[in-house]
Amino acid sequence: MVLNAVRGGLGFLTRLPVGGGESEWDAFRRTPAAFPLVGYVVGGLAALPLLLPLPIPTAAALYLVTIYLVTGVTHADGLADLGDAAVVHGDAERRLSVLKDSQTGVGGLLALGLTLVVLALGAFGLAGAGGRLTLTAGVAIALAAEVGAKAGMATLVCLGDPAHEGLGSALVGENDPSGLLAVVVSCLPVVALAPVTGGPAVVAALVCGPIVALLVRSWGRQRLGGVSGDVLGATNELARATAIHVGVVTWTLL
């Protein structure tokens, strides 16, 4: 069941050629713990450029490129749609109509552009800018940030209410808060690595995902009436960018 769910998660959350079909999709949407498990794969692949003997800017750029080669642009598109909805004046119905609009406006461009800049600057820190971050810690923070971002998506799936019928409701409508225990358990390997890698910085990066998710959930309930697929994707992008910076800052200060 879990292996099928992870395969379904890889097929849904990444561009990796893992195959899979209806049974894997069904297993994934009923298994929130599969989200952070997929995060281990994505985070591990994205961190590979940090292990190479490259100049810091090059390693940071390759980290960013690898992220989107592995995950595609679906989540980034969700962030852009949410940015457009956030600047619209009107009720939840008006904002939901903007979410479904295929055109990207100024709000979406600004949200996506700022998030990418923030992520790129965080990647520069991960690559060891100024010698402040060790190689091991940089890789561990990158991994924790990705696992945490996916745990944030799982948090929304378990605690959110569907904003409308669609792909998001197929996930949110199938789960409840009881699924969070398995999500926490699936994140424990990152916590176990913390004492020998990045210490508190790894834990700080990990918990950013659920925290960002709760903030986005609160906004979504007020402005959209619940959680949509775009909200899930936006949470992933915002949580990752936030976690990278929180991890690097925590390492620098402690």
Automatic annotation (TrEMBL):
Task: Enumerate the transmembrane spans.
Answer: 33-52, 104-127, 133-159, 202-220
Asked whether the UniProt record includes Transmembrane helix among its keywords, one would answer yes
Biological process, per Gene Ontology:
cobalamin biosynthetic process
Q: Which cofactor does it need?
A: Mg(2+)
Query: What pathway, per the record?
Result: Cofactor biosynthesis; adenosylcobalamin biosynthesis; adenosylcobalamin from cob(II)yrinate a,c-diamide: step 7/7
Gene Ontology cellular-component terms listed: plasma membrane
Q: Which residues form the signal peptide?
A: none
Principal place where this protein is found? membrane
What keywords are assigned to this protein?
Cell membrane, Cobalamin biosynthesis, Magnesium, Membrane, Transferase, Transmembrane, Transmembrane helix
Give the bilayer topology. Answer: Multi-pass membrane protein
Domain of life from the UniProt record:
Archaea
Any Pfam family from its record, for instance, is CobS
Task: Tell me which HAMAP family the record gives.
Answer: CobS
Q: Which family does it belong to?
A: Belongs to the CobS family.
Q: What does this protein do?
A: Joins adenosylcobinamide-GDP and alpha-ribazole to generate adenosylcobalamin (Ado-cobalamin). Also synthesizes adenosylcobalamin 5'-phosphate from adenosylcobinamide-GDP and alpha-ribazole 5'-phosphate.
Q: What's the protein here called?
A: Adenosylcobinamide-GDP ribazoletransferase
Organism annotation:
Haloferax profundi
**Gene this chain is encoded by:** cobS
